[in-house]
């Protein structure tokens, strides 16, 4: 997919991995719709890159439909979707307060898994109606996590949600192949996102030291560089790529 002149949507684009990817796509000539629940963050990134900010809960069908329509009205029909929206959360299955709160589990699944699927299906429905650009009509890049493979204690919901993203990548890629739409997933390891920015410098250094090489936290532009490559490389399809410095997470 030629990024220059294409329209892209980045969910979770107001910060972290999403913001870095929105900037990288814009730097290569894309018009970017920055979707985020945080209006101020979305607007800040969109203003910086000449894109459009949309406030949206990705798990809400009406809100996601409206956001895609707003991006199309402003910039044209999107051909690139980068799903970075996601939340965390940690609970023991049975803790001091009792069993894992079911509403907390459902919330993580709704945002990380159902939200990702919701954006995929709505984006694909629009993309398949467009004429191909060269060989393809569209490209989708999802965000999983190494927790999909080595979830730690307390990460049952997060691991389940990210494992679901990994698990649906290949069947969706096979489903959309007939429409010339590619689907891939990136599974990052320990990255310097807003979640980790709230930790002390000492704790961040300790986490980075767990990474075999390079022994540091990943930088969001490194995620963005891989997302850009996936968009530009037509033979990458149906794949989940770990981006983790060879780390394999321990139980805690």
UniProtKB/TrEMBL annotation:
Record keywords: Oxidoreductase
Q: Which InterPro entries does this one have?
A: NAD(P)-bd_dom_sf, Sc_DH/Rdtase_CS, SDR_fam
Organism ancestry = Bacteria, Pseudomonadati, Pseudomonadota, Alphaproteobacteria, Acetobacterales
Q: Which GO terms describe its molecular function?
A: oxidoreductase activity
Instruction: Say yes or no: keyword ATP-binding present.
Output: no
Q: Which organism is it from?
A: Acidisphaera rubrifaciens HS-AP3
Family membership noted in the UniProt record: Belongs to the short-chain dehydrogenases/reductases (SDR) family.
Q: Which Gene3D superfamilies match?
A: NAD(P)-binding Rossmann-like Domain
Superkingdom per UniProt: Bacteria
Question: Is Oxidoreductase included in the keywords of this UniProt record?
Answer: yes
Under which name does UniProt file this protein? Oxidoreductase/SDR, 3-hydroxyacyl-CoA dehydrogenase type II
């Amino acid at each position: 997919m030629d990024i220059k002149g294409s329209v892209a949507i980045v969910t979770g684009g107001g910060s972290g991995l999403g913001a870095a990817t929105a900037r990288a796509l814009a730097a290569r000539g894309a018009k970017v719709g920055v979707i985020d629940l945080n209006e101020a963050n979305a607007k800040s990134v969109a203003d910086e890159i000449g894109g459009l900010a949309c406030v949206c809960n990705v798990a809400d069908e009406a809100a996601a439909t409206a956001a895609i329509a707003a991006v199309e009205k402003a910039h044209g029909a999107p051909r690139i979707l980068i799903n970075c929206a996601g939340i965390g959360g940690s609970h023991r299955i049975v803790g001091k307060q009792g069993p894992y709160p079911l509403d907390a589990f459902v919330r993580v699944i709704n945002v990380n898994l159902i939200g990702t699927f919701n954006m995929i299906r709505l984006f694909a429905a629009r993309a398949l109606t467009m004429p191909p650009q060269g060989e393809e009509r569209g490209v989708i890049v999802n965000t999983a996590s190494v927790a999909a493979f080595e979830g730690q204690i307390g990460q049952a919901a997060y691991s389940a949600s990210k494992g679901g993203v990994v698990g649906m990548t290949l069947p969706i890629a096979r489903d959309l192949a007939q429409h010339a739409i590619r689907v891939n997933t990136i599974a990052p390891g320990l990255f310097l996102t807003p979640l980790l920015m709230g930790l002390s410098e000492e704790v961040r250094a300790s986490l980075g030291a767990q990474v075999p090489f390079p022994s540091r936290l990943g930088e969001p532009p490194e995620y963005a560089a891989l997302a850009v490559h996936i968009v530009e490389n037509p033979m990458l399809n149906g794949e989940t790529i770990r981006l983790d410095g060879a780390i394999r997470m321990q139980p805690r």
